[in-house]
Amino acid sequence: MSSNGHSEKKDPVLVIVQLTGGNDFMNTLVPYNQGEYYDARPLVNVPQDEVMPISDELGFNPAAERLKKMYDNDDVAVIQGIGYPNSSRSHFRGMDILHTCEPDRISTEGWVAKLIQRLDPQSENPLTGVNIGRGLPRAMAAPGVTATSVGDLDNYGLMPDIQAEEDRNRDLEIFKRMYTPAIGAGMVMDYLRQTGIDSLAGADMLATVPGGYESTVEYGASPIAKALRDVARIHTAGLGARVFYTNHIGYDTHSHQPPVHPGLLRDVTGALDDFLTDLREHDAAEEVSVLVFTEFGRRMKDNGSGTDHGSGGGAFIIGEHVKGGLYAEYPSIKPKDWLNGEDLQHKIDFRGIYGTMLEQWMGVEPEEIVVGEFEQVQPFERTMFSS
After folding, report:
1. Residue of 341, 362, 358 lying closest to 299 (CA atoms)
2. Which CA distances in Å does 358 have to 79, 296, 331, 371, 376?
3. Per-residue pLDDT band at 206 (split at 50, 70, 90)
4. Please, what are the domains in the chain?
């Protein structure tokens, strides 16, 4: 087993950050020189003189200043216009599709779970896949696949056995409540019977991690900062974790978007910047790549206070060996090109972005995992296979 950060051979590691609720990509990477943007969003826009330009047409929201810093350092690939045909506007179904890569049917196998199975087919290490947060994301769930989930790394090792058992049972109950409406109680219970408490058993191995970690990086106080700090602590402990998953909630900005969305961007981009800095301090950055995604974009027109569910969103790939820049194509914002008269048209399928990370970064054939062949981007200047 490789000890990332503590041995000559380093296995590639994937960190997935889910922006839950539907991040407004258009107000994250702003088409600041196109009048159609300001016409469509008279109340929910980023003023042209506040945008941080990266080209003649596009610039970052000023709240994403630390993302732009990483972008300027060639550490960020921005994937534009992500989506899939007949995009669902339902949070539950939309995220379900992105978790299983199955837009046309209900699936019981998450794409990350299938990756974990490829990386550790005998389930020898319960820390091959680690979720930081409550419950277990659908992406990490599949019959016969074990993934570890831990909600509070600092306090976990201090819990008496009975409290730890209760904590695990709460997480499993959250999983059951989340997924029974989509796939039925029978399938959920089958999954829990097969994996049960074992899906969280690896948390026992994490009890000593906090005591072995030191860093000069001072993360922010937000939940995403705490989660990414936990990822850094587990990764640098050299326990063989290969896939991490966490989420940042609050992006469903139907109302009060102007005051809310910038705060979300400041929190997540600051946490990502601190995370990369922390990994570099520990000589543990070269083997890590981060994928930041969301379930859908928002509609072209504001609703007077926020924006409603739409399509044509975006993602970010962040890491030491990323070729910084823009990838795929920003959707046209001209009214004649709007989908259904109100949406951005996607330019690249999300499954191609997953395929990019699977094949180019993790060294795993993607077709079975993403259920098909899809166009990929080329965001890496170097990988663990070409170094």
Report:
1. 341
2. 16, 21, 25, 13, 10
3. confident
4. 21-370 (3.40.720)
